[in-house]
Amino acid sequence: PKHLKNGTTDEYEVTIATLPKQNGWVNENLVKYHDTWFNSTTLKGVMLAQDHFVARPTDIFLATFPKCGTTWLKALAFTIVNRNRYDFSDHPLLTKNPQALFPFLEIFSLRDHENEDELEISSSPRLFSIHTPYPHLPESVRSWASACRIVYVVRDPKDVFVSSWYHMKKIRSKELPQLTIEECFKMFCEGVYQFGPYWDHVLGFWNASMQSLDKVLILTYEDLKKNPIDSAKKMAKHLGHPFSVDEEKNGIVEETVKLCSFDNLSNLEVNKTGVTKIASFRYYENHVFFRKGSVGDWQTHLTPEMVEKINEISKQKFRGTGFTA
Ligand code: A3P
To answer: Is the CB of 291 under 6 A from ligand 1?
Structure first.
Protein backbone atom coordinates (compact mmCIF):
# COMPACT_ATOMS: atom_id res chain seq x y z
CA PRO A 1 0.00 0.00 0.00
CA LYS A 2 1.13 3.51 -0.79
CA HIS A 3 0.12 6.74 0.83
CA LEU A 4 1.69 10.13 1.40
CA LYS A 5 5.39 9.33 1.81
CA ASN A 6 7.15 11.04 4.69
CA GLY A 7 3.91 12.79 5.47
CA THR A 8 3.35 14.63 8.67
CA THR A 9 0.84 13.37 11.19
CA ASP A 10 -1.70 15.85 9.90
CA GLU A 11 -1.37 14.54 6.36
CA TYR A 12 -2.16 11.04 7.64
CA GLU A 13 -5.29 12.42 9.24
CA VAL A 14 -6.29 14.06 5.97
CA THR A 15 -5.90 10.74 4.14
CA ILE A 16 -7.78 8.83 6.85
CA ALA A 17 -10.68 11.31 6.76
CA THR A 18 -11.33 10.39 3.10
CA LEU A 19 -11.64 6.61 3.74
CA PRO A 20 -14.90 4.61 3.85
CA LYS A 21 -16.22 4.40 7.44
CA GLN A 22 -18.24 1.91 9.45
CA ASN A 23 -19.31 1.59 13.03
CA GLY A 24 -17.06 -0.86 14.82
CA TRP A 25 -17.37 -3.23 17.76
CA VAL A 26 -15.56 -1.32 20.46
CA ASN A 27 -15.98 2.20 19.13
CA GLU A 28 -17.47 3.68 16.01
CA ASN A 29 -14.24 4.58 14.24
CA LEU A 30 -13.51 1.84 11.72
CA VAL A 31 -12.08 2.91 8.35
CA LYS A 32 -11.32 0.78 5.31
CA TYR A 33 -7.83 1.15 3.91
CA HIS A 34 -6.71 -1.12 1.04
CA ASP A 35 -9.35 -3.75 1.89
CA THR A 36 -8.53 -3.85 5.61
CA TRP A 37 -10.64 -2.35 8.40
CA PHE A 38 -8.63 -0.37 10.92
CA ASN A 39 -9.45 1.65 13.97
CA SER A 40 -8.68 5.14 12.64
CA THR A 41 -6.13 6.00 15.36
CA THR A 42 -4.35 2.68 14.90
CA LEU A 43 -4.22 3.24 11.15
CA LYS A 44 -2.24 6.40 11.76
CA GLY A 45 0.26 4.28 13.72
CA VAL A 46 0.38 1.76 10.84
CA MET A 47 1.11 4.55 8.35
CA LEU A 48 3.73 6.15 10.61
CA ALA A 49 5.43 2.77 11.00
CA GLN A 50 5.40 2.26 7.20
CA ASP A 51 7.14 5.58 6.69
CA HIS A 52 9.50 5.77 9.64
CA PHE A 53 10.11 2.42 11.32
CA VAL A 54 13.43 0.77 10.53
CA ALA A 55 13.70 -2.86 11.54
CA ARG A 56 16.93 -4.13 13.07
CA PRO A 57 18.19 -7.57 11.99
CA THR A 58 17.67 -8.78 15.57
CA ASP A 59 14.06 -7.56 15.87
CA ILE A 60 11.33 -10.05 16.70
CA PHE A 61 7.71 -9.50 15.66
CA LEU A 62 4.82 -11.46 17.17
CA ALA A 63 1.97 -11.22 14.76
CA THR A 64 -1.64 -12.08 15.47
CA PHE A 65 -5.14 -11.26 14.42
CA PRO A 66 -6.82 -9.98 17.62
CA LYS A 67 -8.01 -12.75 19.98
CA CYS A 68 -5.78 -15.42 18.43
CA GLY A 69 -3.44 -15.64 21.44
CA THR A 70 -1.48 -12.37 21.51
CA THR A 71 -1.27 -12.26 25.31
CA TRP A 72 -0.01 -15.85 25.50
CA LEU A 73 2.49 -15.38 22.70
CA LYS A 74 3.84 -12.21 24.29
CA ALA A 75 4.40 -14.05 27.57
CA LEU A 76 6.09 -17.01 25.87
CA ALA A 77 8.32 -15.00 23.56
CA PHE A 78 9.43 -12.62 26.32
CA THR A 79 10.21 -15.51 28.67
CA ILE A 80 12.10 -17.47 25.99
CA VAL A 81 14.18 -14.57 24.73
CA ASN A 82 15.01 -13.18 28.18
CA ARG A 83 15.51 -16.44 30.04
CA ASN A 84 19.07 -15.63 31.00
CA ARG A 85 18.04 -12.32 32.53
CA TYR A 86 15.27 -13.40 34.88
CA ASP A 87 14.70 -16.21 37.38
CA PHE A 88 11.35 -17.93 37.38
CA SER A 89 10.95 -16.99 41.06
CA ASP A 90 11.36 -13.28 40.39
CA HIS A 91 10.01 -12.95 36.87
CA PRO A 92 8.44 -9.77 35.42
CA LEU A 93 5.38 -11.84 34.44
CA LEU A 94 4.60 -12.32 38.12
CA THR A 95 3.97 -8.60 38.53
CA LYS A 96 3.11 -7.35 35.02
CA ASN A 97 0.49 -8.29 32.47
CA PRO A 98 2.14 -9.79 29.34
CA GLN A 99 0.77 -6.84 27.34
CA ALA A 100 2.94 -4.49 29.43
CA LEU A 101 6.22 -6.24 28.61
CA PHE A 102 6.66 -4.77 25.14
CA PRO A 103 4.62 -2.65 22.77
CA PHE A 104 2.49 -3.04 19.68
CA LEU A 105 4.39 -1.62 16.70
CA GLU A 106 1.26 0.26 15.58
CA ILE A 107 0.94 2.00 18.94
CA PHE A 108 4.68 2.41 19.52
CA SER A 109 4.84 4.40 16.28
CA LEU A 110 2.29 6.89 17.62
CA ARG A 111 4.26 7.69 20.75
CA ASP A 112 7.08 10.01 21.56
CA HIS A 113 9.89 7.70 22.47
CA GLU A 114 10.97 9.09 25.79
CA ASN A 115 9.89 6.06 27.77
CA GLU A 116 11.63 3.39 25.70
CA ASP A 117 13.46 1.92 28.68
CA GLU A 118 10.25 1.43 30.55
CA LEU A 119 9.10 -0.98 27.85
CA GLU A 120 12.50 -2.59 27.49
CA ILE A 121 12.51 -2.08 23.77
CA SER A 122 15.93 -0.49 23.68
CA SER A 123 17.43 -3.84 24.61
CA SER A 124 18.42 -6.31 21.94
CA PRO A 125 16.60 -8.16 20.60
CA ARG A 126 13.65 -5.77 20.51
CA LEU A 127 10.28 -7.44 20.74
CA PHE A 128 7.17 -6.01 19.09
CA SER A 129 3.61 -7.23 18.84
CA ILE A 130 1.80 -6.59 15.59
CA HIS A 131 -1.80 -6.87 14.48
CA THR A 132 -1.00 -5.12 11.17
CA PRO A 133 -1.72 -7.33 8.13
CA TYR A 134 1.45 -8.48 6.39
CA PRO A 135 1.12 -6.31 3.25
CA HIS A 136 0.82 -3.19 5.43
CA LEU A 137 4.03 -3.83 7.40
CA PRO A 138 7.01 -1.49 6.94
CA GLU A 139 9.22 -2.46 4.02
CA SER A 140 12.18 -3.06 6.35
CA VAL A 141 10.18 -5.73 8.21
CA ARG A 142 8.97 -7.48 5.05
CA SER A 143 12.25 -7.27 3.13
CA TRP A 144 13.84 -10.67 2.57
CA ALA A 145 17.16 -8.92 3.03
CA SER A 146 16.27 -8.17 6.64
CA ALA A 147 17.07 -10.92 9.13
CA CYS A 148 14.29 -9.98 11.55
CA ARG A 149 11.98 -12.81 12.57
CA ILE A 150 8.20 -13.11 12.67
CA VAL A 151 6.02 -15.60 14.57
CA TYR A 152 2.37 -15.70 13.56
CA VAL A 153 -0.35 -17.47 15.51
CA VAL A 154 -3.51 -18.67 13.77
CA ARG A 155 -6.66 -19.74 15.61
CA ASP A 156 -9.93 -21.37 14.51
CA PRO A 157 -12.01 -18.38 13.33
CA LYS A 158 -15.06 -19.75 15.16
CA ASP A 159 -13.21 -19.46 18.48
CA VAL A 160 -11.77 -16.10 17.39
CA PHE A 161 -15.28 -14.84 16.83
CA VAL A 162 -16.57 -16.08 20.20
CA SER A 163 -13.54 -14.63 22.00
CA SER A 164 -14.05 -11.29 20.18
CA TRP A 165 -17.72 -11.24 21.10
CA TYR A 166 -16.99 -11.59 24.83
CA HIS A 167 -14.13 -9.12 24.63
CA MET A 168 -16.35 -6.58 22.90
CA LYS A 169 -18.97 -6.91 25.63
CA LYS A 170 -16.35 -6.14 28.27
CA ILE A 171 -14.82 -3.11 26.60
CA ARG A 172 -17.46 -1.53 24.35
CA SER A 173 -18.40 1.92 25.53
CA LYS A 174 -21.58 1.82 27.61
CA GLU A 175 -22.80 4.96 25.86
CA LEU A 176 -23.02 3.13 22.53
CA PRO A 177 -25.98 0.92 21.59
CA GLN A 178 -25.38 -2.73 22.46
CA LEU A 179 -24.68 -5.15 19.61
CA THR A 180 -26.32 -8.56 19.31
CA ILE A 181 -24.27 -11.69 18.62
CA GLU A 182 -26.00 -11.92 15.21
CA GLU A 183 -24.94 -8.38 14.30
CA CYS A 184 -21.37 -9.08 15.36
CA PHE A 185 -21.32 -12.38 13.48
CA LYS A 186 -22.41 -10.68 10.28
CA MET A 187 -19.73 -8.00 10.71
CA PHE A 188 -17.05 -10.62 11.44
CA CYS A 189 -17.98 -12.63 8.34
CA GLU A 190 -17.90 -9.48 6.20
CA GLY A 191 -14.50 -8.60 7.62
CA VAL A 192 -15.79 -5.53 9.47
CA TYR A 193 -13.60 -5.92 12.53
CA GLN A 194 -10.32 -4.23 13.32
CA PHE A 195 -7.55 -5.64 11.07
CA GLY A 196 -10.20 -7.77 9.31
CA PRO A 197 -11.09 -9.70 7.29
CA TYR A 198 -9.65 -12.49 9.44
CA TRP A 199 -9.07 -14.78 6.44
CA ASP A 200 -7.04 -12.24 4.46
CA HIS A 201 -4.93 -11.58 7.56
CA VAL A 202 -4.05 -15.28 7.81
CA LEU A 203 -3.29 -15.54 4.10
CA GLY A 204 -0.93 -12.54 4.16
CA PHE A 205 1.31 -14.24 6.72
CA TRP A 206 0.79 -17.70 5.22
CA ASN A 207 1.96 -16.53 1.79
CA ALA A 208 4.96 -14.79 3.38
CA SER A 209 5.88 -17.97 5.25
CA MET A 210 5.70 -19.95 2.01
CA GLN A 211 8.15 -17.53 0.42
CA SER A 212 10.56 -17.62 3.32
CA LEU A 213 10.33 -20.34 5.94
CA ASP A 214 13.33 -18.79 7.70
CA LYS A 215 11.54 -15.54 8.32
CA VAL A 216 7.96 -16.38 9.22
CA LEU A 217 7.00 -19.23 11.56
CA ILE A 218 3.30 -20.11 11.71
CA LEU A 219 1.93 -21.70 14.87
CA THR A 220 -1.66 -22.47 15.73
CA TYR A 221 -3.42 -21.76 19.02
CA GLU A 222 -4.73 -25.31 18.89
CA ASP A 223 -1.21 -26.83 18.58
CA LEU A 224 0.05 -24.55 21.32
CA LYS A 225 -2.70 -25.89 23.59
CA LYS A 226 -2.17 -29.53 22.61
CA ASN A 227 1.58 -29.53 22.69
CA PRO A 228 2.95 -26.39 24.33
CA ILE A 229 6.40 -27.87 24.91
CA ASP A 230 7.00 -28.59 21.22
CA SER A 231 5.54 -25.22 20.21
CA ALA A 232 7.79 -23.40 22.69
CA LYS A 233 10.84 -25.26 21.36
CA LYS A 234 9.90 -24.43 17.77
CA MET A 235 9.43 -20.79 18.68
CA ALA A 236 12.75 -20.61 20.57
CA LYS A 237 14.61 -22.12 17.61
CA HIS A 238 12.97 -19.78 15.12
CA LEU A 239 13.78 -16.75 17.28
CA GLY A 240 17.45 -17.72 17.42
CA HIS A 241 17.31 -18.73 21.09
CA PRO A 242 17.02 -22.55 20.92
CA PHE A 243 16.84 -24.47 24.19
CA SER A 244 20.08 -26.37 24.85
CA VAL A 245 20.14 -30.06 25.70
CA ASP A 246 20.97 -29.12 29.30
CA GLU A 247 18.10 -26.66 29.49
CA GLU A 248 15.74 -29.33 28.19
CA LYS A 249 17.10 -31.82 30.73
CA ASN A 250 16.71 -29.29 33.53
CA GLY A 251 13.05 -28.69 32.75
CA ILE A 252 13.45 -25.09 31.54
CA VAL A 253 10.99 -25.61 28.68
CA GLU A 254 8.38 -27.00 31.09
CA GLU A 255 8.95 -24.10 33.51
CA THR A 256 8.53 -21.61 30.67
CA VAL A 257 5.29 -23.20 29.52
CA LYS A 258 3.99 -23.39 33.10
CA LEU A 259 4.79 -19.75 33.85
CA CYS A 260 2.92 -18.65 30.70
CA SER A 261 -0.03 -21.01 31.06
CA PHE A 262 -3.56 -19.67 31.20
CA ASP A 263 -4.11 -21.11 34.68
CA ASN A 264 -0.97 -19.56 36.09
CA LEU A 265 -1.26 -16.11 34.51
CA SER A 266 -4.99 -15.65 34.92
CA ASN A 267 -4.75 -16.43 38.65
CA LEU A 268 -2.01 -13.92 39.43
CA GLU A 269 -3.13 -10.95 41.48
CA VAL A 270 -1.80 -8.50 38.87
CA ASN A 271 -4.01 -10.07 36.21
CA LYS A 272 -7.09 -10.17 38.42
CA THR A 273 -6.99 -6.60 39.67
CA GLY A 274 -4.32 -4.68 37.72
CA VAL A 275 -4.63 -2.24 34.85
CA THR A 276 -2.33 -1.85 31.83
CA LYS A 277 -1.81 1.17 29.64
CA ILE A 278 -1.79 -0.18 26.08
CA ALA A 279 -1.75 3.18 24.38
CA SER A 280 -1.72 6.78 25.50
CA PHE A 281 -5.41 6.77 24.66
CA ARG A 282 -6.40 3.49 26.28
CA TYR A 283 -6.15 1.65 29.59
CA TYR A 284 -7.31 -1.95 29.95
CA GLU A 285 -8.14 -3.93 33.06
CA ASN A 286 -5.80 -6.92 32.90
CA HIS A 287 -8.53 -9.50 33.42
CA VAL A 288 -10.03 -8.68 29.98
CA PHE A 289 -7.14 -10.54 28.33
CA PHE A 290 -8.12 -13.81 30.03
CA ARG A 291 -11.46 -15.52 29.61
CA LYS A 292 -11.51 -19.27 29.10
CA GLY A 293 -8.35 -20.08 27.17
CA SER A 294 -9.74 -23.24 25.60
CA VAL A 295 -10.26 -24.77 22.15
CA GLY A 296 -13.74 -25.32 20.73
CA ASP A 297 -15.78 -22.96 22.92
CA TRP A 298 -17.67 -22.07 19.71
CA GLN A 299 -19.59 -25.32 20.07
CA THR A 300 -21.69 -23.88 22.88
CA HIS A 301 -22.18 -20.45 21.28
CA LEU A 302 -22.77 -20.79 17.55
CA THR A 303 -25.88 -22.08 15.81
CA PRO A 304 -25.42 -24.80 13.13
CA GLU A 305 -26.11 -22.10 10.49
CA MET A 306 -23.35 -19.89 11.89
CA VAL A 307 -20.91 -22.83 11.92
CA GLU A 308 -21.76 -23.68 8.34
CA LYS A 309 -21.40 -20.08 7.22
CA ILE A 310 -17.99 -19.55 8.79
CA ASN A 311 -16.68 -22.96 7.63
CA GLU A 312 -17.84 -22.15 4.10
CA ILE A 313 -16.00 -18.81 4.10
CA SER A 314 -12.83 -20.58 5.29
CA LYS A 315 -13.21 -23.21 2.58
CA GLN A 316 -13.63 -20.61 -0.13
CA LYS A 317 -10.94 -18.23 1.06
CA PHE A 318 -8.32 -20.92 1.70
CA ARG A 319 -9.06 -23.08 -1.35
CA GLY A 320 -5.97 -23.48 -3.53
CA THR A 321 -3.70 -21.58 -1.14
CA GLY A 322 -2.18 -24.65 0.51
CA PHE A 323 -3.23 -23.33 3.90
CA THR A 324 -4.91 -25.84 6.20
CA ALA A 325 -5.56 -25.12 9.83
P1 A3P B 1 -10.89 -16.88 24.95
O2 A3P B 1 -11.72 -15.64 24.89
O3 A3P B 1 -11.33 -17.92 23.97
O4 A3P B 1 -10.75 -17.43 26.33
P5 A3P B 1 -5.55 -12.13 22.60
O6 A3P B 1 -4.50 -12.28 23.64
O7 A3P B 1 -5.02 -12.25 21.20
O8 A3P B 1 -6.42 -10.96 22.82
O9 A3P B 1 -6.47 -13.43 22.73
C10 A3P B 1 -7.26 -13.62 23.86
C11 A3P B 1 -7.62 -15.08 23.96
O12 A3P B 1 -6.48 -15.82 24.41
C13 A3P B 1 -8.72 -15.33 24.98
O14 A3P B 1 -9.40 -16.49 24.50
C15 A3P B 1 -7.90 -15.58 26.23
O16 A3P B 1 -8.61 -16.25 27.24
C17 A3P B 1 -6.78 -16.44 25.67
N18 A3P B 1 -5.56 -16.46 26.49
C19 A3P B 1 -5.01 -15.45 27.18
N20 A3P B 1 -3.90 -15.87 27.82
C21 A3P B 1 -3.75 -17.17 27.51
C22 A3P B 1 -2.79 -18.16 27.89
N23 A3P B 1 -1.78 -17.89 28.70
N24 A3P B 1 -2.95 -19.42 27.40
C25 A3P B 1 -3.99 -19.70 26.57
N26 A3P B 1 -4.93 -18.82 26.19
C27 A3P B 1 -4.81 -17.56 26.65
So the answer is: yes
